[in-house]
Specification:
The chain is α/β, with parallel strands linked by helices. Helices cover 31% and strands 19% of the residues. It is built from 8 helices and 11 strands. The longest helix has 20 residues. Bound molecules: flavin mononucleotide and iron/sulfur cluster (2 copies).
């Protein structure tokens, strides 16, 4: 089977899912790539042609696909065309995310022919509390490209759409997770929740550092920061994605969640990327 175009669908506030998606598409090596980046806004109805291949790469929030990613994908319609599903998580766990995405993409009319779980730097990672810093790194991206090449080979070897078999993403190998750090993490999370320590609902801003450059306004996926009022955040709109924190050139924005030290302490061991094809 020949593939004439590849659709890359992403939602990626801190750009790790986008980097992984780009590397997979590089590996597929198709000359026509249509980028559908849903990070800043949704799209109008989009019908994916039957002979196109789609790659969807989205982040994990709370063990599920980031809800806004799903919301913004609702207008994509496929008529049995093949899709590759990728979830990117911050080295803790992706839990139900890949299965969620499989159910959702199947509902949009896609045929799932491959899946993957990749690690990206945690949105809450900071200099003080590093979590999966720098990932996806060169090795992850090389692995992603190789995955793209394998996808290309799978498609090329299928005589037609009927012969391009689907995969059961529940059979993907889980990354290794030592029991005791996980157990200690869970215990501390329970204690933290019981203690009633407040979880910040938005990043905080140091007004002395802010130069009102507007970078955070442009990169906020939900419009939670208004031009001219960059030192505030609209609580009801904020999804705590940390795009503004990571992009602020002055380090004026920080998100100090009590989760961060626990993540940094208990998920030091770097997890492996996994694929199923
Ligand atoms: C609200 C929120 C919830 C998250 N939940 C998880 C999680 O359950 N497990 C995990 O390993 N990482 C979690 N992360 C980290 C992200 O999945 C990870 O940093 C990912 O690389 C971000 O993707 P992006 O760069 O495309 O935005 C969470 C991040 C945010 C902002
Ligand atoms: S990116 Fe940082 S410095 Fe620029 S407006 Fe936003 S908070 Fe201020
Ligand atoms: S204000 Fe909230 S939603 Fe907007 S970029 Fe910052 S953390 Fe994300």
């Amino acid at each position: 089977m020949d593939i004439h175009e590849v659709y890359l669908v992403t939602f990626s506030p801190t750009r790790t899912s986008k980097q992984v998606g780009d590397a997979i598409v590089r590996g597929i090596g198709c000359s026509k790539v249509i980028n559908i980046d849903l990070t800043l806004s949704a799209i109008e109805r989009c019908d994916i042609p039957q002979d196109a291949l789609t790659v969807i790469s989205v982040p994990v929030y709370g063990g599920h696909v980031a809800p806004l990613a799903l919301e913004r994908m609702k207008e994509i319609h496929a008529n049995g065309s093949p899709v590759v599903l990728v979830v990117v998580y911050g080295n803790r766990a992706y839990e139900k995310a890949l299965v969620d995405l499989d159910t959702f993409a199947s509902g949009l009319g896609f045929k799932v022919i491959a899946g993957a779980t990749f690690v990206g730097e945690h949105s809450y990672s900071s200099e003080k509390y590093p979590v999966a810093v720098g990932r996806p790194d060169a090795e992850d991206l090389q692995f992603a490209e190789l995955f793209g090449q394998k996808i290309l080979a799978k498609v090329a070897n299928a005589a037609d759409m009927e012969k391009l078999y689907g995969v059961d993403v529940t059979r993907i190998q889980r990354p290794r997770q030592p029991f005791f750090p996980l157990f200690r993490f869970m215990r501390k999370i329970l204690k933290l929740r019981k203690s009633g320590v407040p979880f910040p609902r938005t990043p905080k801003v140091d007004a002395d550092l802010c130069t009102h450059c507007g970078i955070c306004v442009k990169n906020c996926p939900t419009g939670a920061i208004l031009k001219g009022d960059e030192c505030n955040t609209i609580t009801e709109k904020c999804i705590k994605c940390c795009a503004c924190v990571k992009r602020c050139p002055q380090k004026a924005r920080t998100y100090d969640t009590p989760f961060a030290p626990l993540l940094a302490e208990h998920f030091k061991r770097q997890k492996e990327d996994r694929i199923i094809i």
